[in-house]
């Protein structure tokens, strides 16, 4: 098997319109396609970042709650690279999104912080500065 890349990340949300707004208006993803699956009372929204397909946002009626903290067993978080972490935090704060205090990776000396989507999915900003 020769894996070429990550194709997409699937996220199930509890409030489709709220999550759609968050990922498109707050984080700036663009919509590739939106599919209403009436037979399942569900939506599927394909989202891109910088013209690269990356997230499938799903809605389902009454999805079960999943424990999702950064130190939980399983998928830890979804991280986004930024050039200036403080500018990104300021932009998120202006849109009503709170971020944790900035941390510094002891090994790389890179700065990062965590915030959450509307369902509490842990998201990270990771500053990529040379």
What does this structure look like?
With 130 residues, this protein is of the alpha/beta class. The protein folds into two domains: 9-59, 2,3-Dihydroxybiphenyl 1,2-Dioxygenase, domain 1 (Roll); 78-127, 2,3-Dihydroxybiphenyl 1,2-Dioxygenase, domain 1 (Roll). Helices cover 16% and strands 37% of the residues. It is built from two helices and eight strands; from the N terminus they run βαββββαβββ. The chain has a four-stranded mixed β-sheet with strand order 1-4-3-2, covered by helices on one side. Strands 5-8-7-6 form a four-stranded mixed β-sheet, with helices on one face. A hairpin with a 5-residue loop joins β7 (111-116) and β8. The longest helix is centred in the N-terminal third of the chain and has 11 residues, at 16-26. The protein is globular. The relative contact order is 0.19.
- CATH homologous superfamily annotation of the largest domain: 2,3-Dihydroxybiphenyl 1,2-Dioxygenase, domain 1
Q: In order across it, which strands form the biggest sheet? A: 1-4-3-2
DSSP strand tally? 8
Helix content: 10-25%
What percentage of amino acids are in beta strands? 35-45%
Mean pLDDT: 89
The largest sheet, given as strand count, sense and whether it forms a barrel, is: 4 strands, mixed
Q: CATH class of the largest domain, please? A: Alpha Beta
CATH architecture of the largest domain: Roll
Given the C-alpha coordinates, what overall shape results?
globular
Secondary structural class: alpha/beta
User: Which H/E pattern describes the elements?
Assistant: EHEEEEHEEE
- pLDDT below 50 for ≥5 consecutive residues: which ranges? none
Whole-angstrom Rg? 16 Å
The number of helices is: 2
Instruction: Give the total of domains.
Output: 2
